[in-house]
Amino acid sequence: MAIAGVTTVIVWSKRTWRCNEAMCPRGSWSETSNQIGSRASLTERARAEICRRVGQDLDTVAEVARAFGVGWSCAHRAVTNHGDTLIASDGRLDDVVALGVDEHTFAHVNARRRTQMATSFVDIDRGRLLDVTPGRSGGVVRAWVESQPI
Prior knowledge:
alpha+beta, 2 domains, three-stranded antiparallel sheet, 31% helix, 23% strand
């Protein structure tokens, strides 16, 4: 990530502690932080910012991944991890009076895959997309409706 136009990389040198006492239940341990997960490439703050830029600023995952100097899958994981909790608590399903359901082709057939269909759920009164799920059957619609809070 650039800070004042300069690419910045934060390096955290975790200290490893050892206990030489024979009665010590742990022989060694290293520093931890709730802001940096184990084997993480990004801090939680950076992961939240990636999610914000994709969800609010409508940047693509690829753009944000390049800006943060990580791979697409790392950035996408940040979006899904932080985004799922935001979506669950955003109230988008509150006060839905009329639900619209539409099916469309998500990915066309080619030499390696069959045509993939998706079902969209829309709040007709507010003209807002609520969700998109794979498949296009009555069972897909029923499962989605049953999984929503009443």
